[in-house]
Design brief:
Elements: E1 2-6, H1 13-24, E2 28-30, H2 31-40, H3 44-55, H4 61-72, E3 81-84, H5 90-99, E4 104-109, H6 112-120, E5 122-125, E6 131-133, E7 152-153, H7 160-174, H8 176-183, E8 187-191, H9 196-210
Parallel strand pairs: 1-3, 1-4, 2-3, 4-8
Antiparallel strand pairs: 5-6, 5-7
The structure holds BIS(adenosine)-5'-pentaphosphate.
């Protein structure tokens, strides 16, 4: 199955994708994670996108589409994938239709007040990437990953000023994709405001109903 996750920053795309990837046995491909890995490894791509990510702006389409084209050509992506954070613009969505057409677009719906709460409380493991929240999904030991013992950190773009820029970029450049995919009868709306378990079980019911 080829699934795209749409939704504003902090809607819970990464959290949902972690669960879906385990349950459905599909690779979780996050363009945000690919960019952050490139920054960490100080690659040419990482140097180009470092400031863009820190400010909360979108990376230019040509760079992003090239990265996804390469990733989707890898062996583990041939039987399907869960794309988290791509596409984010209409040209990206058009490119994806040409590379490998999507079968289902989950639109995680969450209001702005909750987004701010979720992003300002998010912590991520520097080592394995596991996502936590200081209130709703705290680690057993403060600042330490339950899974691998790695150090938890706050993403630089989870500062309030960058969150505002990310939300504006979402409204201007990404939200039009909701209508775009709806027209193609691919859109599945999903309330993202419940617990991670309830959001995922609502998705499983949708899958069951589709047969
Ligand atoms: P990216 O990493 O994709 O960031 P984002 O879309 O802003 O999404 P987030 O990762 O912030 O949130 P999420 O929806 O995954 O939420 P999460 O599950 O972590 O992109 C970063 C940057 O890369 C962009 O700004 C851009 O610069 C660049 N980029 C990436 N893709 C690009 C593209 N296609 N084109 C151009 N540029 C691109 O959850 C958030 C918090 O809430 C966590 O703490 C979590 O524990 C908690 N939480 C989640 N779900 C629940 C729940 N159900 N109940 C309670 N708490 C929850």
């Amino acid at each position: 199955m080829r699934i795209v996750l749409l939704g504003p920053p902090g809607a819970g795309k990464g959290t949902f994708a972690e669960q879906a990837s385990k349950t459905l046995g599909l690779p979780h491909i996050s363009t945000g994670d690919l960019f952050r890995a490139a920054i960490k490894n100080e690659t040419d791509l990482g140097k180009k996108v470092k400031d863009i990510l820190a400010q909360g702006l979108l990376v230019p389409d040509d760079l992003t589409i090239g990265l996804v084209r390469q990733r989707l050509a890898e062996p583990d992506a041939q039987a399907g994938w869960i794309l988290d954070g791509f596409p984010r613009t209409i040209p990206q969505a058009e490119a994806l239709q040409e590379i490998s057409p999507v079968e289902m677009v989950i639109n995680l719906e969450v209001d702005d007040a909750l987004i701010l709460q979720r992003l300002t409380g998010r912590r991520i493991c520097r080592n394995c990437g596991r996502i936590y929240h200081i209130v709703s999904m705290p680690p057993k030991k403060d600042g330490v990953c339950d899974v691998c013992g790695g150090e938890l950190y706050t993403r630089p773009d989870d500062q309030e000023s960058a969150i505002k820029t990310r939300l504006a970029a979402y409204r201007e450049q990404t939200e039009p994709l909701v209508a775009w995919y709806d027209e193609k009868k691919l859109l599945v709306p999903l309330r993202g405001s419940g617990t991670p378990e309830s959001v995922y079980s609502a998705f499983e019911k949708i899958l069951q109903n589709r047969g």
